[in-house]
Structure formats: C-alpha cells, structure tokens
C-alpha cells in the first residue's frame, strides 16, 4: 500500500520543525487528555481546537504519555497525503519517545511500543478490504494490516487510533468507521477544528461508539497565546454593473495582494523585525494556471522573477512546499488548489485566491496557511499583554470570486463557536428526525458519565427505527431494571424498563433551556439555535420608530448607415474618459474589506484590471442585437469609434516624457478597447419614461414599530450593506428555500416575528422570510442603492407585516406593499425624506397601482425588468428610461421632480 509519493530519504530524514514548548492551555489539555484516556473504561476523546493551535503537538505528547504507561502501537490517520510528511516531521521534532513512520513501511516492521504509523483515511476506507477482513493486499514481502494487528496484540500490545483533522479526514465517515470498528482500538483520539460536524458523529456511530469525552480550546485562547493572528480580513470586489462582466478580478487580486504584501514588508522593516512576508497565491488546478499567475506577477506587478517560488504539480510535494515557505529570498509562493492544504508558512500574511472556495472545511485549511504567528513576531513582542500592531496581527485573504467569502465566513464562524473546555465533558449521540423526514445524529453534553462508551442495542435500534429500517417492538414483559447498555439478543424484546431508561437518557441529554433575560443572553440563545440577529442601526438619520401606512377611507444599405450611426453617436466626456480608463486598467471600483471575526467592514476605491477579451465580447454581443447588423457592420462601427477616440487616448500622454509614451500600436490597441467600452455602454439606450398614478382618498396611520432586529439562519451569513437599515442585504429567495434543510424544527420555531420580554424592555424581532427576500433584479438594485451618495438609508419592505408600509389600491380590494423604503436627499442639502420604490414584472399592473399618490410619501417610483435592463414605468403603462445601476442620478432627479409637498400627518 502506497500512502505518499515521498522517497525513503524524505521519510528517514531528521526532524526539520522547531522543538516546541507547550503553552499553558496546551499543557492542561495534554494532562487532562492523558488522564482521561488512561481511565479503566478508556473513553474515546475528541479535541476541538482551531487551526494553528498546535493540535498535532498536543496529540503527540498525549501519545507519548500513554505509551510510557503501557505498551501501545498507534495508527494515525490524516486527510491529505502531504499531511503525512508534515505529521512525521512534527512527531520527530516533539516526540523523541515515539517512533513515527508511514503505514506502508511500518506494517512490515516488528510491532513495538510507541510506534506510530501514519496514513490517510482513504488508504484503508475500502469496502473490498473490509469484506476480506483487511487481509487482502499481502504477499511474500508485504504484511497485511490484519496480520500486523494480530502480531501486535500477541506480544501483547494495545492498539491506539488517532484521527487528525477529523472534520475533513472523515469525508468517508461510514466506511472508515467500519475499519475503526474492526480495529477495535483500545484508545481512540480525534481532533477537529469545528464545534459540530455530522461526519464525525456518523463515524462515531459506525465505529460503535455512543458517547465520548470532548475537550476544547477557543480561538481567543490561541490568539492570546500568540499562535494565531487576531484578525482575519477578507477582501472582495463589489463592482458596478458596467464593470462586473469585463473586470479581470484574478489579475486585480494579484495586484492588490502584492501591494499589501509590500506594505507589510515595509512595516516589518520599520519595526526592525527580521521577517520577509510571503504572499501565497492559490490558483485553480490545470496545466498553465501556475505559469499564467507567474507571468501576471512579473508583468503586471513587477515582481522580480527570482522572488517567486512555485509548485506546479497537481500532486502535493510537501518537501518543496516547506522549502519555499522557509526560503526568505522567495516573496511569493504559487500553488494549485490541490496542494493548498497542510503546509506551514508562518511568515505568510496574505493569501490571494483566484479559485472559488465555498466549502467551509477547505476554507479553514486555506485560512490556516496565513493565520499562524511567525516566531520572529513573537520574539519581537515577548510581552503578551501588549497587543501586536493591528496590520501585523491580521491575516489577509484576497478573493477573486466574491461568493467564496461565504465559505470563509462560515469557517471563521464555526471556529469562533468553540469554547474552551480544558477539563473535558461527556457528549452523547442521539438520533433526531428533521422536518424533511431525514434522520441525523446530534451530540449533546451530559453531566453523567456512562458505564460504557459502546453503542447500546437500545440506542442502535432506536436509530434504525428512526431511519425506517426496523420498528421497536412493544413492551410485553416487566421485571427489574437492567443495565441500559447491556446487549440484547434478537429474540429478547425491549421491556418497559429499557424503554423508560431510554426516555431518561433523552431527557438528560436535552435539558429545557432557560429564557434569556438580557439582550446579550438573547443573542447567545439564538446563536445556540444557529440563528443570527441583525440589529436595526442607530447611526442613520431620520429613522422613525414606525413607518406610515395607509388604509382605505371609511367611505365607499447597412455599412453606410452603420458608419453614419457611429459618426453621429454622442460620446459624453465622462463616458470617453471612463472608456480610456478601462483601456488603461484605471477604472476604480469598490474593494470591500471584512474582518471575519467581528463582521466589521470598510470600503476602498481601487484600480480594477480590465479583461480585454471579455470587453470585446460584450461589445460585439451588444452590437449584434441592433437590427439588421452583420459582422461587417459591427467592425465598421467599432473602427469609427476607435478612430474618434484615438486623439483622446494620445492626449492622455501629452505630459509624459517621450520614453514613457506607449508605441503607436499600443495606443491604437487602447483606442480599440475604449471603443468596445463605448459600444457596450451606449448600444442598449432607449428613450422612454415612467409615469404613475395611484388612487386617492386614503387615510394615513402609523404602523406598528419596526423590529429592533431581523433574524436569519447563521449558516447563511448575509452580506454587509453600508446603507441598509439593518446593515445587511436581505437574503436571496433561493436562500430562504434552504431553511427547512438547514435548521431543525425546534430552531425554526424561533425564526419568526416575535416580541421578547427582557429586563431592559421589550425587544421586537422580525424574520427575513420569503416576503422580505430578494430576487436577482432586486438584489442588483439594492446594491446600486448602497453605492448612491444621495441615499441615506434604505429598507426592504416585506408583505403583510404589521410594521410594513402598505398603500391603498384604488381599483382593487387588496393593499399594496412597495418593495423599498428609501431615505434620500432630493438635492444636496435637502432634508432627507422617505420615498417608495416598487419593482414589478407587469408594467400594466404598475400603471394601475400608480393611480393613487400617497400624501406622505409622494409619487411611487415603479421599476420593471425589460430584457436585461431595468426601466421605470410611465403613467400609461409604457416603459420609461433605463435605470443605470452604476449611476442613479436620473433616479434621484425623477424623485426630485415628484417630491411630496406634504410630509407630516
């Protein structure tokens, strides 16, 4: 069996890692884990600790302690091949009293106490081996696992099993669990970086374990020990609509990440810290991805070629990765996603990811590459009561795909939920049925120590019954109470005493929660049920306690033509300027920095690299939609536009030194790119406007108070919004539909509109349900509001809530709930007023609703999607002008012209 691609020389080398001295929390955990594992009933033990907290070191010392007390041989399993070499080095450095090797080599050696055989879980999670009792792959020169285990037990030696990085290693939890059950280890020790993981629970069940002892250390403790950086900053790009499809975010990320790395290098030098920061660049798997990133760094970022290290192979080479990570002459390490986990690079502060990473487990692995604190930093600041400079105590993750941030947010959130439990606690496995009918295992703390840690027949049958595989027989006999964990034969039915004992186990595992008394307890209470509260912001102007609503009153030849069009096309100065900026990679847009542990964020305007190929494609696609146009016509239009723009391009370099002016061929290329930009922006212009009329004679009243906070599942973190009343973009409709699969029924019961009576007053909670969710068009408009300076704040108005804005429809019995309430200035210095905007699919329905103008809010603005553009609707139902989501000044002007004359009730 081959576990790694490492050579024998690599495996027999001396330890390369530093010899560690344990931190206080590490010593406590090592001692408590050792004492627990050495108890007479030898419980399984689980260590929960953040990435970079020294899990491998602590596990190694526990193994050494136990091996000094009794003869034990150990199986140590990891999720990735490159972690085999890393674990070998760690054991050689910090456990000289152990004998580490690989499983491929070790099983041909004579078993001896303290021997540790390291492999990947995939190497033994094989059904064909299980069917042959793991006695399947031997020959004259290779001993099977079954033969080696039999030999070890005959000496006699005990068997220990370690599963490191269990939250990833147990991807095939059931099959590996069957191997563990066959192995029947005397000692079972697992380590994970997450607070809860269904795969881990499935493994425990398939391994025949019903209970285990858990130990944990929080990220806060690890940060205070200077093992982890305090802050984790994710950087994404929130682009306007005109840039979204033509921005080259991969190259933008490389440029911005290298810029950050150079800033850190300067900061370290100013503080006399002998450390060269390392920029990690993670690219997609493929033949040319590493080389393409290298060329971009050299040509675009001006990185010296000698400062770039790269790992081009698809299979990870841990020796090469470690060598580059420790070579201070290298300032960049480029690697593929497949080689992106399990190597240590403490001098790395910045990770540039050009490949989406949405799985939280893998996201945490990537964060772990930049989260560790280098020894030079710890030596420069020996007093742990003095905080490190914030910029040097931060890990930076630059993401080319904004959607990848969610995976990193979930990873950090999961790590933050781990609370220190250095003394250990018993956790029990219980089956629970979801609303969909699926059965999942849950782990609940219990104060009672079990008599045995093996899965009882009672609980095993209960799980099978919940899965619909077997029904529990009715009690037919009575008798004295028996051992709850005693085995029952197939012909021995469960009696009433066993059923009562089972109910008592459940009762102990699920104590009734106490009601929260303060806002802090309320937030914590919701978090335990995987619900997050988003409070209403108090830093916004003119936010009323409640909104105004309405109720019904009490009483009842083409080339020539194409050339002519291109010649006459009006190219405004600002459009020409933006087009040339796009051609020169000088368009600016929003770079959003989010500190993932606190959720705080800030925006910066940075230069965005333009994808020339995508821009040309977009321009041709837009021009191909023009009537009767062919390829020749498109070429003519673009050629004319490029000729018109070329003098403007030359003018941009009038003040440059002659040796800095681009060659004529390059200037013409820029003019061509600028022509593509103009064609893309101007092709879909239409001349129509919006007019509306709403029925009259409605009474205005004050709706119920707005919620103090809005609730949503914490597994789906909402994106930050600088101008939303609750600080976030409401969820997408697709996200709301996932709630039934993400939350248990008990948790979903808390996810509703409700009033909470707390010591400091009544707290009103709202629910981001389907009535408040956004579709794609509404989400694009909400982001445009966030970018508009005249908008002070905005609120998503849900349907049929007692606190919603509702308007009377003069032609229909139903009420009307506009989608957006916006607080804005109609002109600079104007008093901010509330206005209403509705997005509609049916322009005729909008015209009917527009017949009534509410006195308080003034004329409602109706927007509708037409093809790929958003337009407003005229009073007669026809479509009006295009709403440019990059510049809502026309929308502001429309609202100014319809500004209400009466704003008080």
TrEMBL record:
Gene3D superfamilies: P-loop containing nucleotide triphosphate hydrolases. Residues 36-213 form the Helicase ATP-binding domain. It comes from the Bacteria. GO terms for molecular function: helicase activity. Keywords: ATP-binding, Helicase, Hydrolase, Nucleotide-binding. PROSITE patterns: HELICASE_ATP_BIND_1. This is DEAD/DEAH box helicase family protein. It comes from Chromobacterium phragmitis.
